[in-house]
Write a structure and sequence with these properties.
This protein is mainly alpha-helical. The longest helix is centred in the middle third of the chain and has 17 residues. A two-stranded antiparallel ribbon has the order 1-2.
Amino acid sequence: MTTLREKYDAINAQLGKMVTPDKIELMHRAKEELRQSGAMERVPRVGDRIPEFQLRSANTGNMVDSKALLAKGPLVLNFYRGLW
């Protein structure tokens, strides 16, 4: 089974083939600016509790309830920034 780290590393290895060097530099610069802003100290950490929520599924359009998902096991949230 592939670990999350292995998947992440594979995506990063492909990055240079999909994105121009100037865009990669822009992404790295934006990431560093976020670090320097102190934002990293305010982000939730693994194991932190989050407020209950309901969101519309991007796949099905149905409402998804965090409480119902947590009843099935651990919950991982992933936010996609969208187009650069």
